[in-house]
Every structure is written in C-alpha cells, then in structure tokens.
C-alpha cells in the first residue's frame, strides 16, 4: 500500500474513559471484527490485564477503511501499555504512530492520566485527534470538556468529536478525522530497509514473533535481515498483519505495520526498540532511542511449600519465554530455603509476574523485599555486584559501595511543583533541570537513587499531584553512597530474607519503622516473638509479639467430631500462608513489610 | 471393645443463645410419643450391627432429655437391652435441666434405669444465668442438686460455664466454691465459646457482643484447673474434672476413638472398624426432628451424611480427641495401628517447649499446652502426616 493511504495511530485515554470500547467499535465499523467474532475489549488479551484495567502488551491491528473521498485507507491501530514500568515500551509503540486519538469522558472531563498520556504523545511528535466520549450520559457536558481540553492540555478542541463508543455514535467521524488529521507516513520507499521493533513475544510454533513498523524501505519474505544492536542476522520466514487474525503477506512496505517471524528462539534476541534492516542493503543509521531493557529491581521468590520448587522453576521458564525483561537464577536463603532471585523492570512488573505465577501456575509464593543492584569494591580493587542484601559484605571488607542512580523526568502542572520538590529531596534527589513547556506545564528533572524510586515514588508522586504528574526515568550509572545493611532478627536469629540495604542517615528511622510494621504483621503464636533490627552487632530497634495465651476448644459434644475437624482444617489452611522460620511462623506480607514503611 | 449408644432428644423449652447443638426451643409443644417411637424404630434398623457389641454405656443427651416422661426413657432402655443382650452393669446417663425435673421425675428416671445424672447448672449467679439465657434460677439449681442426691442417685455431674460478658474473677470463684459445696464427684467446666450460627455468633459478628479477652480467660482456665485439682478433682479431659473413678465412661469412648451408635435427630455415630473399611466410618443423622421422624417411619435410615475414613483422617481424629485426655495418647500404639512414622523432632520440640509431657510412649498436654491445645494438636497432627 502506498504510504499516503496509510494511517498509524493509537488511542490514549484515562482509565475507564472508553478506550477499549472505542477500539471495538472501530473494529466493527470497518468490518474487521464480525459480530460472531466479537469479544469485548479484543485488544486486551490476558485475563489479568482485564482485571487490572491495564494493557501490558502492545498489539497492532490492521483495518481497511473506505473513506468519504472514496479511497480505501489502511489503518494500523496500535495499543499501548500504561504504566511507568513499561514507559519505554509505550514510547516505542508511540514511535510507530503518526497520530493518536485522545479520548476524554464527556462528564468527567480531562483527568490526570489524560494529561500525562497527551504529553507523552505530543512529546513523541504525534498529531492528536480529540474525542469527547460518553455523550449519551445524562451528566455529559461537551462544551465544558472542550474548554478543559484547550485549557489543560493546550490543544485546539474546536474539532473535538462528540461520540458515544458504547452506542456507536461518532465512530465514522472519528475515522474521517484520522484520515484528515493524522499525517501519512513519509514516503521513503526507495531507501534501504529501516524498521522499528516495537513488541515481541514467543510463540511455541513460530518462535519469536516481532511487531514492526517499517519506517523506510520494505521487507520481504525470504530476505536476510539483521538487528542493528546485535548485528545478528536471520532469514525472514513469515510476514503478516493482524486483522485481527493473522494474515500472511509477502511484503511490508514503508509506513506499514505488521509481524515478522524468523526462527528466532530467544526472546532476548529481538529487542524492543531495535532497528531491523537487510543484510544485503543495510541502512546506515539505526532509529534513535534504542535502549537495552535491563531489569532494575530484584527480589527473591520462594515457594511457601518447598516441594513446589521445581514447579516454580518451570513456571518461571515459561513466563520468561515471553518476557525478555524477566531474569531469574537460583538462590538459597537460610530462612526460606530454595528459591530464585528474579529481576524485574519495576515494582508493577514484579507484582504482575508474582500474580501470574500464583494464579496461572497455582503457586503459593513468598517474595522478599525488592532491591536494586549495588556495586562494591574491596581493598584490592575487586568489584562485585550485589543483588541480594544478605550478600553485602561487612563494612570493613568494602572500600566503596555504590548504588545506581536514575534521571527522573517529572511532567507536572505547576501547581504541584512544591510538593514534588519536597518528595524528590526526601528521596535523596538532586535537581538537574527544570523547564516550563507552557505557562502551566513543567518538566523537572532530578537525579535520584534508583532504590528510592522503586519503592513508592510513583505512587507518592501520583498522590501528591492528584494524579496529574507523570514520570519516566533512565539510568545514569553508579555513584558512591553511605549505605549499610540492616538485618532483622527473629527470636535472636537473623532472617536473611528480611535484610535491607539503607542509607546510613536513615537507618535508625527505617529500622524502627520496619520492626513496627513486622510486629503488626506477625500474628501471635505459640511462642513469644522478639523482632529486632540490627546494624552489624548493634541492635537499633526491638518489638515483641506476645505468645497466645489461650487457644482451646471447650467442648466436643455428643461424638460430633466434624465441627472440631473443620476448625483444624481452618487452622491448617491459615498456616499454609505462613512460612515456618525456626519455630516461628511468618506471614507472606511480612517479607514485603519494607514496602509499607511509612516515611 | 467397649461400645456406647447415644440417644439425642432435640427439644428444649427455649434455645440458649450460645448453643450450637441440634436443639430446638419448642416450649411444651413436642411430639414425645412419635419421637420415642422413632428412636425405637431406628434402634431396630441397627439390630444386626449392634446385637453382638459389648455395650458399656448409654447416654441420653440433648436438647433436654429430662423433658421426656420416664416411661418413654424406660421403653428406650428396654429396647436396647433387648437388642444387645447386655448385662445390667452399664453406665446410663441422662442430661437434666434444673427447671424441667423435680424429685418425682428424678425418682421415675432412676426407676427407668438411669444411673447417672448430668445436670446443666451453668452458674449460681443470677446475672450470668440471665446473660446465658437459661431458664433456671440460682434457686432452681440449688434445689435440683439436692433432689438428685435425695432421689437415690449415686453418680452425678454438673456443668458450669465461665467467660461470660463482664464476668469478674470473683464471680467465677463464687460459682466454683458453691459448686464444690454440693460434693458432686464430677464437674464439667466449659469456657463460653461463640459459635457461628448461634444468637451469640450473630451478635458477636455485628460487634454487639464483647467477651473477655483470651488473655484474661487463660487466667480463669488456669485457676479452674488448679482449684479443682487441689479439691481432689482430676482434670481428665480439657473441660472435665472428676474424683477418682467417677469419670464419664461414655464420653471416654469419644475421646478414645472407640465405637458408638448415635440415635435420634442429628446424632453422630462412629464405628472404629467396619467390614468395609479398616479405618472406620462416621455418619450423622438428619438434623430436623420432623424429617428425622418421617424418614424412620418410612423405614429408611435417617442419614444426613456418611464418611468412610481414610488413614490420615483416622489418625487425625485419634489425635484430635485423644490429646484432650489427660491420659494422653500412646504414640507407639498409633504408629503401629496405622503403620506410620511420627516426626519425633517435631514432637520433641513440643515437649522441649513445655506444651507436651511424656512418660515412655504416652504423650499428654501440659498445663500450658492445655490452654493452647488447638495449636499444639495441629502441630502434633502435622508430625504424624
């Protein structure tokens, strides 16, 4: 298809403003999805995504739309994930588009997430097509919302389309606006192939499937291609488009979006953001912005019941097939036994993986507090990397300890600047830049230790800005810090899985806080539980959970033992969620208590 | 092997708000004759199963069996004698509510063959009795305790209850002191427990019922055991105290995992070994009295459910009930009977930490273990599975 007839766009919206419903309407209107095939919210594939209301994997659907000018256009609707852990993937998906449909709820108006998403799209150079959705609701106020779009987002809303995705009102107008306002891809058909990989996953029959956007030139089946970041080459086995079912094609030209398979066995070989070109006639320069996706946050995952170790291993193998950001290797904890140290992009990624392991593989797991990778240097100059606090050498064996820093860019309305400064300072940040994009739209850039970001920075940022601020971050490297290990002792025995690395200045506060949290999380049991925080051999905080004094069934009447047995079963079930450490039972949540410490 | 028969009489004048047994508050309106006939018919349905057992006890429980006419009680006892060819040397207990029996009725019961009375006193405090929704007054309690002795019974027991709302320690001390003054050889002392499905359970879940904390109750329990022990009563089960030789042999069947047939609405049965299953089976009758009667009248066994036990369940039941007894359980015997090996480290740990004590192969709860028996039993069960 000639580039001038192609339109590549995504839909961006605040949660529940109707993104998935509109996507469904567009699929129906263009005949891409027949009534029979219709499944609500086709674009969100996994159950878990549906429940969380977020889309984790990007998807691209090809639609043919015969416009009022009589021409049939090829649309590519590209869906994007919506969380900071996946902000890189979002940026790559947006890079595959020329425009975005911006949905705003006609009664709720412009919400924080709308603004954050709109910023991200305009930063990526996308043309926005504003849509005011849910006009069928009694509380709809199209004119007010039009005003909000102009004031808050700062784009013209004169041509914003009133619509009701639920009732199919405005769908045609939206499609026409896409034709009219979203630019066609630049025609660079004569150039050598330059294609952006914006998503990839593993298929057990095809190997790795990549979603690509051809930016220049074209790609054909049988051709030998190579990835510019690795230099590795492969033969293209199949090319195709999703419409929404997979349809094979022989060729994808400039501006087109589709999938490629090339008998690639490892998901890590097809990196999101990488540039694909041909071996025979390679392009000179890769597309900008490629970043190697490395796990930033590490946590131990342990089966509560040690017999589940092999099942956990198999489950991780399966998940990693499809998730290049998930890494894992076996580790042993004195307290928790055999498990795996796993690396994630961020906390949400970690939660999603854990939830999938528990739900899809029916595993009962304990995850330890997330940590970043620390870098230590001993007196002989030998450098080690530590991704588990309990592996941190004692202070006398370290010349230097460094931690990873990131450059955090926060986009925010000016109103919240003060609170954001406070937060960044609390998190040991140093301001690097501040830019006023418009009168009321600011980008502040702070350099902050990654460890401070992974815990609750994002949630706090959202809460102090009422959701209006958005953020992204990129690693800047390691810097020396005054860090020490804080250990937790339960009845005098150190529990390695509860150790954390903290900044020295805050160690007392963090220790006290953590111990108090643990006290509230560990239930009373047969034995008194003494919980202590220590730094080296020094105890800095102590709490105790008194032993249970009475746990007895008074009466077993008339030979009815069933009731008594039910009680025992209930106790047994309760115990299942506890990890036995020595003679003390520690609940799952306690190992994540560090995440809950208030500051 | 000893064998017991339990007869359940589900009717009460009013239902107590803490009671989760299969009982119904019906005033004076209950089908006594039909129900008695149903008991007789049900016994007949089990004739083949029990005609050769070594019957050692009969227990009339409820509900309020003292609501029934002694003539009907006699019919039932005769029927049992008829089917089982038993000797006269049985323990035959009947539960009495103080408000529903007088000297005459007690004499009648004695004549009917009852030789042990268990009377539900609960308290001598008007405040506590009211809170517990009992129909008896402190005066009724005192009266019946004397009448039981006067009517010629030689074996009797009373139930007491503590842990009521706002109960003070001295209130409970007074209750025990007065109870001891009657010189009964057997006392059951129960800590009030809130059960789901009861009136108290409902109020408790709504936050409208506040009971003493477990920490506080642990003091009541410790005191009860100490004081009764010093007065010559041995705690032979978690809530049961008796002078030497006055233990309730029927209840011992339950705790020792032996066999018994339960007859009447909602009654539970246990046959330790059956032809079909070496680990035994349990069953329970239909709970609703009218449906129970109907089923028996149609000549059907009035079953609610039956469970064939597997080895794990049988082991668990044995520990669950056996550890309640002061005699404890014989670990080697259990290992042999069920061909299992106990995790001696786990059990040793419980001994080391003072929850269990052992002499040779016998393991029993210590005083501390008694207070925490649910948790200790759970660990013991785990050590055996």
The biggest beta sheet of chain B is recorded as: 9 strands, mixed
**What strand order characterises the main sheet of chain A?**
11-10-16-7-8-15-12-13
Number of helices of chain B: 16
Terminal Cα separation of chain B, in Å? 27 Å
Q: Unreliable runs of chain B, pLDDT <50, ≥5 residues?
A: none
Fraction of residues in H or I helices of chain B = 40-55%
- The total of helices of chain A stands at 13
Helical amount of chain A: 10-25%
Low-confidence stretches of chain A: 44-58
The CATH superfamily of the largest domain in chain B turns out to be tm_1862 like domain
Percentage of residues in strands of chain A: 25-35%
- The quaternary organization reads as heterodimer
Give the overall shape of chain A, derived from the CA principal axes: globular
Tertiary shape of chain B: globular
CATH topology value of the largest domain in chain B: pyruvate-formate lyase- activating enzyme
Number of strands of chain B: 17
Structural class of chain B: alpha/beta
Radius of gyration of chain B from CA coordinates:
21 Å
Strand order of the largest sheet of chain B: 9-10-8-7-6-5-4-1-11
Looking at the overall shape, the CATH architecture of the largest domain in chain B is Alpha-Beta Horseshoe
Structure notes:
The complex is a heterodimer of chains A (599) and B (385). Chain A has 599 residues and is of the alpha+beta class. Chain A is built from 13 helices and 33 strands. In chain A, the strands form seven sheets. An eight-stranded antiparallel sheet of chain A has the order 11-10-16-7-8-15-12-13. In chain A, a hairpin with a 2-residue loop joins strand 27 and strand 28. The longest helix of chain A has 15 residues. The relative contact order of chain A is 0.08. In chain B, strands 9-10-8-7-6-5-4-1-11 form a nine-stranded mixed sheet, sandwiched between helices. Chain B has a three-stranded antiparallel sheet with strand order 12-13-14, with no helix packed on it. A three-stranded antiparallel sheet of chain B has the order 15-17-16. The longest helix of chain B has 17 residues. Chain B is α/β, with parallel strands linked by helices. In chain B, helix 1 runs parallel beside helix 3 and helix 14 runs antiparallel to helix 16. The mean pLDDT of chain B is 94. Chain B has 16 helices and 17 strands. Chain B has two domains: 252 residues, Alpha-Beta Horseshoe (pyruvate-formate lyase- activating enzyme); 71 residues, Orthogonal Bundle (Arc Repressor Mutant, subunit A), CATH 1.10.10. Chains A and B meet through helix 12 of A and helix 9, helix 10, strand 12, helix 12 and helix 16 of B.
